[in-house]
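Below sits the subject:

***
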Amino acid sequence: MSDTPSASAPRLAALGEWIVRRDGASQEENPYWDLEEPEPHPDPSLGCVRRGVCCRSSPGWFGPGEAEEAAALVGMTPDAFVRAHLVVDGMEVDGRFVHVFAPVKLGPHGEPAIEPGRPVDALYRVLRGTCTFFVDKGCGIYGARPYECRHYDCTNEPEDNPQHDAIARMWLAAEEP
């Protein structure tokens, strides 16, 4: 690894620094970009054809009670399921911070991007990563997949797909007596 600038090293003009590359590291800018749209949709009029593009970019949020259903599907207690497969995400809505569950994102080598059972930050939310339940070109918990996954369709206009603030409001409503 070189940590000193060379005459040919690109410079970041704003900071006056040089880009450091590890010896043997991929020159690819971001390996997740290849996962975004590997091939065009075969026929958008068909809607979802289960290509798994969304599963390989960002797992969906669970609605209230759904993590418990997924845990039962795989024969785990809800607590063990969260600690093995989910992260705690969330956002502020209506003046309150709302916590929600989401599947762990896996890195390019299949390792969790963050340890399961932990809270995540806004940076994690925008990080691309394969859902921990995506196996053999399909969802390993399809019968109890998250709300966002059940209602998302890549052929929809973005505003027609589930929005995180709406899912967070579902969690708020579930807390009310």
